[in-house]
Amino acid sequence: MKTVFICDAIRTPIGRYGGALSSVRTDELAAIPLRALLQRNSNADWEQLDEVTLGCANQAGEDNRNVARMALLLAGIPQSVPGSTVNRLCASGMEAIGSAARAIAAGEIEFAIAERRNLQFHAKTRMHLHSGVSSVLHAHKPRAFLRRKSSR
Fold this sequence. Notes:
Distance between the termini: 57 Å
CATH class: Alpha Beta
Strand content: 5-15%
Structural class: alpha/beta
CATH topology: Peroxisomal Thiolase, Chain A, domain 1
Number of helices: 5
CATH architecture: 3-Layer(aba) Sandwich
Strand order of the largest sheet: 2-1-3
Order of helices and strands: HEHEHEHH
Helix content: 25-40%
Number of strands: 3
Number of domains: 1
CATH superfamily: Thiolase/Chalcone synthase
């Protein structure tokens, strides 16, 4: 097994529900740290990048596609680099990092970027727009959607 190193890290600003970042598309926000990594590590051969893995929780609306692929293209990473998006809800970021680290350790790849994009303010905004899914689930598993009344 190869030893895996985190060589650089960067983050985007922290937003809040309905705040200044609520109108920024997920892929555009995800491209910001990718662009910064390109600039900060200009000596890296980005053509050799094996993969970009992005953890994205509660995908809905425009987030309901391969956000990693869209973000890496927006950031200017070569088109030859694949991108994959994983959804493990709150553990999506850790899954992305773990997936990239395991692939490097196993010798499958040598150079990867793992990113987290858990945009809860987007998810809250869009989940009600796609409530048809909930109504279908509610019809088949109604008890999963019931809340217990308070004992007060």
